[in-house]
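Course assignment 3, question 2. Fill in each field.
Student: A.L.
Task: Predict the tertiary structure for the chain below.
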Amino acid sequence: MVRILLGVLIAFLVSICIAPIIIKTMTRLKFGQPILNYVEEHKSKQGTPTIGGIIFISGLIIGSLLSFSGQAVLSVLTLLVTLGYGILGFLDDFIKIKYKHNQGLRAYQKIIGQVGISTLVAFYAYNNAYIGSLVWIPFLNINIDIGIFIIPLIIFIFIACTNSVNLTDGLDGLAGGVMQVYLVAIIALSFILIPNSVNVEYIQEINNLRVTAGCLFGGLLGFLCFNGHPAKIFMGDTGSLALGAFIACFATFTISYLAIPFFGVMFVISALSDIIQVLYFKRTKKRVFLMAPYHHHLQKKGMYETKIVTIYITITMVISMLFILAVMLTA
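Answer field:
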């Protein structure tokens, strides 16, 4: 626990110190976020510096490397994968800025990058003695072995998480705020699922994974000081893809895939609302929501941006606490 708190503090200090430098640099380079023409509520945000994900990714990496102790292969891999997705997001952001529109990498280009990285993680996990093909089943407190099917499951988890977080990143402080609650929840769950009585080397790995989650929390804490409404910088795809990758990595290495829909309930709502909107429109030429994802629907209904963020964070907190309580009662 001490190293987790130390990681939080180091990552926070790194983020809070480099944020003004990043903001000033992005402003000077005119790395401003293009805003979709039909999002009238966001016209005032046109040109706000983006690629702010660099801020908390830096805090995550520096804080983690300074706080690790013992075996940390899974944690280092998590950092590399998170960074890899961050670079993929950076390319997407850079193209948007260079050509001054809201379309970056082509959809197939993103998918190729996401599938490529996640496939490597999936095969590594499948062949890892501590992870393998096990899946923890909530409330039953059992692990089931799904064999080779774990590989496509992990790939799906990565694609779903990265794109869901990306869709949620539409309001000041929304994705970052929800993610902070998510991080606290997965750290708490890891203490319940993986007691210190298991293999010593695996416990060292898990302890370091907890440290990385703490460092990401600290990094986001510093970032949100500048991303809260009205935002001085956006995380961009650089940040949102990195956050989604971290979620998927942590779930993979702790075999807690099925906790994602509970802790990430608002990410799920963002993804489902977007999917429903697209499919229904293609079929009927009508819309279910005034605008998707759902947080934009609420905006169109006249709800203030800060209130939407508060509601999303609160719901995430409540569902996470209920889930952890249910797990503890059935353990």
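Instructor remarks: The chain has a mean pLDDT of 92. The first strand starts at residue 134 and ends at 137.
Grade: pending
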